[in-house]
Amino acid sequence: MGVKREHFGRMGVILALAGSAIGLGNIWRFPYMVGEYGGAAFIIVYLVFAFLISLPAFLAESLIGRKTGKSTYDALENLAPGTKWKWLGMLAVLGAFIITSYYSVVGGWSLDFLARSVVRGFDSANPEGAAVVFDRMTGSTIEPLLAHALFLGFSCMIIVLGVRKGIDRFSKVCIPLLFVLIVAMMLFSLSLPGSKDGLDYLLKPDFSKLTPRGIACALGQSFFSMSIGMGVVLTYSSYMKKQQKILATSVLTLIFDIFFAVISGFVVMPAVFSAGLRPEAGPSLVFESIPYIFAQMGAASPLLGRVMAIGFFLTILIAALTSEISMIESCVSMLMERLHWGRRKATWVIFCAALLLGCWCSLRSNVFSFCDFVSSNVFMMLGALAFTLFAGWKMDRAAVQNEFTNGGSLKISSALFGAFYFLIKYLVPPAILVIFFTNLL
């Protein structure tokens, strides 16, 4: 006998999907790419791709999940029984599991830096202090392994509580808190002397830097930021009630994600330029430069420096947790349906497996890099391509329109649906292939 499927509350699904989309990449990767590839010019291209490519792909995955009320594997099997589509769904979930494993390692770094900010802060007289700590966290020591286990364990505790009591409640508390924190950090960062250079770096359009590579990066950033292709959107949407407006939910999720990414740029870059540092890609910007910046700021007022460091790393931790939880749930949901396991058992199995793979990633940087590459560039891409092609070419058009319009109860113009359907059939799949081959070069 199957277990009755839980459902999100009205706002819970929007906040949960927003939490899945908002992650560490918004905080360090987006600001760097904006400055590297033309400032405001990059942002314009990013926004165009977000609405023309990422939103339709998100909608395609979402409508499959809500229509079936099942996890990734079973959803495709339900709509296309006896075909091989379900195995592409399995690859998407495998990608989510691999990302869960190494992402929790990075989440462990944020947990460690938050704890350091609370306990003793960082030494303003020693610009290498944070770098030394980061080197130790990325080295072969027991400390990052413990942090990885704690971060993963806390994420799994939320999953064990279920959809309504766990993910829904956590999202309702943490997503508003996340936005309050990031806006407060932005206001503080913009008040720093020299912050104007950081704003110029982000917003001054330089179309000479908007190369074909930059355009492809804008496409990729808009796509990956929405957690498309891992079965996460499909799984969360399977917990949506039928009366939930799927188009409105998807648009709000995209707006939340864009808002957080842009605001993150206004947090990081003004602070970096104010301290006289140069931005660089990767976690080092967050875990090496930023702690020293806050230490410098708090040299005259230790309490101020401590509070700002705590706020910054709490923001990072919450962003990491909301994304991690969504990926774990994608895996747990499939195990529950496929093997008829209880939620606790399925979560425990994922915890143990992700703990082992994550430890390997923490101890071996080449394993970390490989897992990042294969999950992001192979499994996610195949999953996203599968969901989009399935909605655009395998499902009956009438069935897609019925789900898009809530059984015809929503007054959505045929032109709007036609535009969406055209995009998922003819524009989104080639765009996914562009991202795929660009990342392989």
Structural notes for this entry:
There is one protein chain. By secondary structure, this protein is mainly α. The protein has one domain: Hydantoin permease (Orthogonal Bundle), CATH 1.10.4160. It contains 18 helices and no strands. Helix 7 runs antiparallel to helix 15. The longest helix is centred in the last third of the chain and has 38 residues. The chain is globular and about 65 Å long.
CATH topology: Hydantoin permease
Using the alpha-carbon principal axes, give the shape.
Answer: globular
Can you tell me the CATH class? Mainly Alpha
Tally the structural domains: 1
Specify Rg, calculated over alpha carbons.
Answer: 21 Å
Approximately how much helix is present in the residues?
over 70%
CATH architecture annotation: Orthogonal Bundle
Number of strands: 0
What class would the helix/strand composition place it in? mainly alpha
Give the mean pLDDT: 86
Total DSSP helices: 18
SSE run? HHHHHHHHHHHHHHHHHH
End-to-end separation: 49 Å
Largest sheet: none
Residue stretches low in confidence (pLDDT < 50, at least 5 long) are none
Beta-strand percentage range:
under 5%
Produce a short descriptive summary.
The chain is mainly α and 441 residues long. It is built from 18 helices and no strands.
Topology:
Blueprint: H1 12-21, H2 24-36, H3 40-68, H4 72-79, H5 85-119, H6 129-137, H7 142-160, H8 163-190, H9 195-203, H10 212-224, H11 232-238, H12 246-274, H13 284-297, H14 302-339, H15 343-363, H16 365-394, H17 397-404, H18 414-440
Helix pairs in contact: 1-8, 1-11, 1-12, 1-14, 2-12, 3-10, 3-11, 3-12, 3-16, 3-18, 4-5, 5-7, 5-14, 5-15, 5-16, 6-13, 7-8, 7-14, 7-15, 8-12, 8-14, 9-12, 10-18, 11-14, 12-13, 13-14, 14-15, 15-16, 16-18
